[in-house]
Amino acid sequence: MQSSQKKIKCFLRFSATLILLIFIIFPVIWSVLSSFKSVVDTLSMPPKFVFRPTLSHYTNVVQEANFFHFFLNSAIVGLCSATLSVFVASLSGYSFARMKLAKTGYFAYSLLLTRMFPPALIAIPFFFIMVRLRLLDTHLVLILTHTSLMLPLAVWIMWGFFKNIPVTLEDAAMIDGCGRFGAFFKIVLPAAAPGVTAVYIISFLGSWNNFFYSLILSRSKAATLPIMVTGFIREFGMEWGQMNAAASLVILPAILLVVFFNKWFVKGLTEGAVKG
Amino acid sequence: MAGNPKRKKWEGQAFMLYLFMVPTFAILGFVLIMPGIISTILSFFSYELGKQSVTFVGFKNYLDIVFDPIFWNGLRISLIYMGITIPVQFVLGGSIALLLSYQRKYRNVTRILFLLPYMLTPVVAGIQWLWLYNPQFGLINYFLNLMGIHEYGGLLSNPSTALLAIIIAAVWRSTPVVMLFLVTGLESLPGTLLDAAKIDGASKLQELVFIDLPLLRPIILVLLILRSVDAFKAFDMIYVLTGGGPANATMNLGILTYQQSFVFFKLGYGAGISIIMFLVLAALAAIYMWIIK
Question: Is residue B244 left, alpha or beta, with left meaning phi > 0 and alpha meaning psi from -120 to 50?
């Protein structure tokens, strides 16, 4: 192949990729951009790409829309359910990786099966019970339901990770005198640290992004960010500036996590899940 | 030493392993199995929220569902939605994955950007698209008008275009992450096999069909099942974009279940729909595995 032919191909691929990337992030960028437009600029036709930015929507969202209340709820529920999921998933992921059962195949399929539970299947009974126990609209209810969402995936990924850690590592530790417990905590877990981090981030994000359970099981006290953001949708005259601002704030943690931890993300999603 | 020390050690170890699994099973039992069982039982009852009474009605809920045209409409929409988004995700995602597997520069940046749509909160993605689809101020209607297509209420208010509009947003959200998985899979393929094929004179297409695809089969299978299940259960974005309308044109089973259970408070009826959804999904997964294996 002539080098000029190769160069053209390379250039075409590069441009195609670039165009693709623009399509992919355009809705996000447009929304964020729009959040800085004054009301007049937002509602102008044709749409403006050059304008004088304003922070008024952000101030409004933070002060009047009570942003921090929702933020705190999302954070509490997210951190708790992620911690619970990761801790529990590490233990059982390790067990399954070390067990010499032929039935581990069935276990994998049963984890897959849990993904097929429609959210309403879980939410209806929880709603039913929590109404009676007066536990509706509490952090606990949300933490439990979010964990139900993320735990199977967490176990799956941790299992994949632990399978890749050679048993010889633990055997060496146990010969040196640790018990199984000690070997797990001091040697194996640190070796799986990238996996643990990846799973923690994925679990946290899964909870942060969840809408359905908050919609049904919370009212005002434990309501999370997705509820606040959809609260700006009204029948007529939606407040687009506020909505775009709130939306941009909600996705900020996700963006930061993806940017800083993207290597671990891809590792966690693919290595653990694909090879597992 | 009396007794067999090796055997004792093994027993102790096995016990530890079982112990480690207890928390997971306890939690999953409480938050997945128990609600599942309760829902199944509830589906045989009729629940009146106002009177707080639960009356046994046997299969009445299921009969009502089967005779309700809105249920079949919902099933149809869920299947159409799934039937379009899944092939598009995989064909498009696969093609882009091939394109990207050549890419060596700026790999990290590309990965981050491709991960973004899937990692964003679905309702926020819905809001971003709601803004794009806005009839008066959205960019999409603006460009459509420029091209001479006038959709005065916006694509989301027209029963014939609403579902398509939602599907486009859904494809935008999911294709990148499918692509990412496929690219990682492609890259993890043993290079030696591909080199051997090249030496034997295989064309790129042959290489693709006879080597890459079979090797990627397990990944593709898992990905297919997961994505299909998610597509069937779709709720967040549809809720934000149309809420099931206009005229039930986008009322898939997810939205329908929500409406029946938490707007009309027919909890037993809603539980029935959920059970049906679960059965359909289980059957779907079985079909996939049978076809691909």
Answer: left
Question: Which amino acid is present at B81?
Answer: Y
- Closest residue to B267, CB basis, from A30, A124, A240: A124
Q: Is B135 on the interface with A (CB under 8 A)?
A: no
Report yes or no for ipTM above 0.95.
no
Residue A162 makes CB contacts below 8 A (sequence gap 6+) with: A93, A94, A96, A97, A98, A188, A192, A195
Q: Where are the alpha helices (DSSP H) in chain B?
A: 5-28, 34-42, 60-66, 69-101, 107-119, 122-132, 139-146, 162-187, 191-199, 204-207, 213-232, 236-241, 253-258, 267-292
Q: Are A262 and B111 in contact (CB under 8 A)?
A: yes
Beta pairing partners, B160: none
What six digits make up the tokens of A239? 């407040």
Residues 194-253 of A with CB under 8 A from B: 205, 208-209, 211-212, 215-216, 225-226, 229-230, 233, 240, 243-244, 247, 250-251
* Amino acid making up residue B167: I
Total CB pairs under 8 A between chain A and B? 259
Chain A partners within 8 Å of B139 (Cβ): 30, 47
Contact B185 A274 (CB under 8 A): yes
Please report, in tens digits, the pLDDT of each residue of chain B (293 residues total).
444 555 445 556 677 788 888 999 899 999 999 999 999 999 999 886 666 678 888 899 999 999 999 999 999 999 999 999 999 999 999 888 887 776 667 777 888 888 899 999 999 999 999 999 998 888 999 989 888 888 888 899 999 999 999 999 999 999 998 998 888 888 777 777 777 777 777 777 777 777 778 888 888 888 899 999 999 999 999 999 999 889 999 999 999 999 999 999 888 999 999 999 999 999 998 898 888 76
Using only C-alpha atoms, what is the Rg of chain A?
A: 23
Q: CB distance from A25 to chain B under 8 Å?
A: yes
Cβ-defined contact of B142 to A47 (cutoff 8 Å):
yes
* Residues in chain B within 8 Å Cβ distance of A30: 128, 131-132, 139
Out of A95, A116, A209, the one facing B17 most closely (by C-beta) is: A95
Rg of chain B, C-alpha, whole Å? 25
